[in-house]
From TrEMBL:
This is Enoyl-CoA hydratase/isomerase. It holds the Pfam family ECH_1. GO terms for biological process: fatty acid beta-oxidation. It comes from Acetonema longum DSM 6540. It comes from the Bacteria. CDD domains: crotonase-like.
Amino acid sequence: MEYSNLLYEKDGGIGFVTLNRPKALNALNAALMKEISHLMDQIAADPTVQVVIITGSGEKSFVAGADITEMQPMSAVEGRNWGKFGQATFDKIEKLPQPVIAAVNGFALGGGCELAMACDIRIASEKAKFGQPEVSLGITPGFGGTQRLSRLVGKGRAKELLFTGDLIDAQEAYRIGLVNKVTAPEELLNAAKALAQKIMSRAPVAVQVCKAAVNEGLDVDLDSGVAYEAEVFGLCFATGDQKEGMAAFVEKRPAKFTGK
Ligand code: CO8
């Protein structure tokens, strides 16, 4: 598939995705969402990609939300279908085997904040602004925002942001646990790449299994979650990387992981 609304390049083991509709502050229209959905399938099947970084083009915006001009004429049924498609697309991001880092360079509003929350880790530029302003448009978040925001920052803070539609800056997003780290704007991509490199230096299967275990565990009770963890922990002992990682420790040398 030819991508017209996003840029994708592979740099070492990093799959680098730039959402690219700068004239609309990278708002998510149907064409861009279809491209994201297609690209996530491609990345999921690509063993040469170890970590994914998602950012927005331009200096102003990560993603300023779903495209309001496209949603304006929608019927209730079309709105529901659009919401379901968005949810399924962001699920693909959350469930990618590889870790995904959102490098939030500017506005992350509505669907943009929801996209960032579907990523595993969020790094924000000092200029970033976050919010779920949907109630100002007469709608609710529809791409998972009511669910992921409360899981990330807690029920009370999520409800305040959802009921008021207020925007918060990067420092406040950091304070409430919505983002992992805040950097100077010019350092954002370097910080995301440095984190990606560090993750890539660890045992790839173990990293992917950690991601799956956290995701699976948050949807079930603690007993089921730790039972899942015991299974995947055991499976790690069938990998060459477990042999290598522990041998390297005993032999006091750096490990050379192969992802096998
Ligand atoms: N959709 C479409 N176009 C947009 C969007 C958007 N979300 N955001 C910005 N744009 C466009 C503007 O219309 C403008 O276009 P033009 O130059 O042709 O007039 C261009 O981008 C630049 O924007 P501004 O001139 O407004 O730039 P400012 O710096 O003055 O303001 C803001 C920046 C504050 C980000 C402002 O653009 C804004 O408030 N944008 C809308 C933010 C918003 O409300 N986002 C939430 C949208 S709803 C949503 O995401 C729901 C997701 C789930 C849907 C599920 C449905 C079932």
